[in-house]
Design goal:
5 helices, about 10% strand
């Protein structure tokens, strides 16, 4: 597989694979589970309780993330323990959360700026 460069667009197969990876991340519950795993590995039961999900629902979401290659899983007796496969999920989440935060701040500044434009200035001489 060739490395992706800015000069060459990715192949159709690479784009299809990337789209599948993004779909795996495209669920709030899965992102919540990922964020919990940033602190370290956890069992389905522990992660479900901390994420406010049922065990079956959490297990389904964790399986999707594992199938996409974001998580490793191992058996510990009768339990399954999940952990991040590498740093990519954390990096992706940090980039997107920073983007969402920046966009929210921009909207807030725009609203505040618009509100100031509606309030007459004391210096304008109007009362």
């Amino acid at each position: 597989m060739n490395a992706i460069t800015r000069d060459e667009p990715p192949s159709a197969a690479t784009l299809a694979s990337a789209a599948a990876q993004f779909r795996a991340l495209g669920d709030e519950a899965r992102l919540r589970l990922l964020h919990l795993l940033f602190a370290g590995e956890g069992t389905v039961q522990d992660l479900a309780a901390r994420a406010g999900l049922g065990n079956a629902n959490a297990s389904k979401h964790l399986a999707v993330l594992a199938a996409a290659g974001f998580l490793h899983r191992r058996k510990a007796g009768v339990r399954v323990v999940y952990a991040l496969a590498d740093a990519a999920p954390r990096e992706l989440c940090e980039v997107m959360c920073r983007r969402v935060h920046d966009q929210a701040e921009q909207r807030l500044r725009a609203v505040r700026g618009g509100a100031r434009a509606l309030v007459p200035s004391r210096r304008s001489g109007t009362r």
